[in-house]
Amino acid sequence: MKTKAGENYQRLIAAVAGLPATPTAVAHPCDDAALAGAVDAAKMGIITPILVGPKHKIANVAAAGNVDIAAYEVVDAEHSHAAAEKAVALIREGRAEMLMKGSLSTDELLGAVVKRDMGLRTARRLSHCFIMDVPGHTNVLIITDAAINIFPTLADKVDIVQNAIDLAHALNIEKPKVAILSAMEMVNPKLESTVEAAALCKMADRGQITGGVLDGPLALDNAISPDAARIKKITGSVAGQADILVVPDLEAGNMLAKSLSFLAGADSAGVVLGARVPITLTSRADSVQSRLASCAVAALVAHRRRQLAAQVI
Question: How far apart (Å, rounded) are the C-alpha atoms in residues 246 and 16?
Answer without folding.
Answer: 26
